[in-house]
Amino acid sequence: MMWKMSSRFGACRAQEPLLEEYLDGHLLSRQIRGVDAHLVKCGKCSDALKRARSGTELLRTYCAPAADPGDIFTRRVMNVIAREESRKEEERLRWHPLEVMVRRLAFSAALALGALLSATMWAHQPLKPATSQVRTLDLMPEPAHVTAATNDVLMAAIAEEHGR
Predict the structure, then answer these.
(1) What is the pTM of this model?
(2) What is the pLDDT of residues 14-55, one digit of tens each?
(3) What is the DSSP letter of 127?
(4) 12 DSSP β-pair partners
(5) Is residue 51 assigned to a domain?
(6) CB contact at 8 A, 39 and 12
(7) Residue 132 falls within a domain, yes or no?
């Protein structure tokens, strides 16, 4: 099988991700057998694996995990947190009176608007007529409707025409 070479590490591109997992011990047994077989055939991948192992060993030797920071560090961090919390509380207390005043003003404005709207609605209601007013119907009654037969109307119109 033909392997393409990676310019970055000098290992075959197809095997390079497997070499990293191989070094970390995260491969399945059949994958380990496949990588071992490839390492026997490919010197470039073997050299890349040796360089990676030596780099890992150097990191483990010279970059030991940091020790516990101790009580002083913990006290400093807790003091910074306490100062920040008190600063936020002071800021909240500084604006609290203004917030209360604005809430009261908004509530008062809403009440005034409601009163104004109800007064406007009440002012535009029609007034009921008073009992002391004279009714126009009593002074000028409407004429009674006389129903005439169609023939009577025609006869009156003809007679009026002949009378001329």
Answers:
(1) 0.36
(2) 788 888 888 888 888 888 898 889 889 888 888 888 888 888
(3) P
(4) 5
(5) yes
(6) no
(7) no
